[in-house]
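Action item from last week, closing it out:
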Amino acid sequence: MFEQIITSTKIIKTDRLTAKDLDKLIFYYGGEAACPAIITGHNPFPARDKMLDELRKIRPAEVLNKVAPDPKVKDVMEMCDELKKKPVNVLIGIGGGSAMDSAKGVAVILSNGGDLEEYFGAKPVRAIEKRDIALILIPTTAGTGSEVTKVGVFTDRNGRKQTLMHPLLIPDAAVLVNEYVLRMPPALTAATAFDALSHTLETLWNRNATPISDRAAIESAVHILKWMETAYNSSISGAQEGLPEMLEGACMAGTAFCITGTAAVHALSFVFSEEWHIPHGVACAFMLEDIFRLNCKDKKTKQQLSKIAEILYGKHDEDTLIAMLLDKIISLKRNLGMPFTFNDLNVALREEEIGGLFDKTLDDPKMKNNVIAIDRQLVHELIRKKFQ
C-alpha cells in the first residue's frame, strides 16, 4: 500500500489483532506507565471483545462505549468527563466511523479542554492547539477511512451534523485487521463501500485537488470499483473474498480525501442523516450519479474520471469512458440495493420543503469544495430529480 507515503499515520495491516499486539502498540506510544483508554461501540463484537478481555489481563485499560451512529457531542463529552481525572496518554478507537470519530473528539477535549461544540463552525470559540494523547484507530468497517484522516463528524445538541477538520486529528497509527471486517452484514458492507467510493470521486472533483490527491484517488477508486461487489456478495454468502480488499481500499481513499476534504455529495448527505436518519453511506450513494454528471462539465475532472475507466475497461474515447464509468456506478447501486428516489428511501418530501431543508448546504465548506459551483437553484433542481 504505497499510499502510506502521503500520510503521517503509520498503517499496520494484519489478519488478526491479539491483546499482546495491542499492548505492544500501547507501550510504544505510551511507555512503561502507559494509561490507555479505549472508545468502542456497545454492540457485541466477539473478536474485539475477546481481545479486550485478554488485554485487561495484561494491563489496566478504561473501556468506554457511549457511541451511537453519527456520534453525539453529548456522548463524547460524557466520555471525556469519565476520563478527565485519569492520566490517559494513549487513546484507542475501535469500530466504524462513529467510534473512531468519537475517539478523535475525546482526544481534542482531553488535550485542549472546553466543550466539543466550541470547536465547530467557521469562527469557533476555541481552537485546537495541541494533542497530548497518542491516537490509535482500528476500523471494523470498510468504508469511512477515518483511521487516516484529519476529519471527525459529530451531531451537535441541536441535531445538526458538524465536521471538525484539523491536522491534529490525524491518528498516529491505523491498524487494519482483516478479521474485523469478515462478518460485516450486507447492508453495512454496501453502505460503507459507497462511502469509500464517494471519498475517491469527491477528491477528484474538488477545488483543493493536487496531483498527489488525484493520483491517490484514481488508484483507490479503481481498487474499490474492482472489489465492492465481490465484498457485498461475500457478505451475503459468508465468504471472505473482497472484504479485506475493501478495508484496504477505504483506507487508501482516506489518505486521498484527507488532502482535499469532501464535496457536494457529502454536503447533501448530511441533510438525509439529520432529517431522516439515513445511514451515511446510503445517503452518499443517493446523490452520487447526479453529482457525477454535474461535475463532468469540468474538463479536468472529466479527464481524471476517464482515467479510472481506462484502467478498468481499456482505451476508448473520453465520452465513452465516462459513460462506461457512470453505468458501472449505477449498476453497482442497483446490485447493492442503494436508493435512487425518495420513494426508495420511504421519505415523503414536498417540493415546497426543499428550500427549508437543503438551502443550508450552500454554507457548508464541503459544498464550496465542489469544482462546479452549486447555487440554490441548482440544489433545488438536483433534489427535484429524485422525486421520480
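Closing note: The chain has two domains: 2-181, 186-387.
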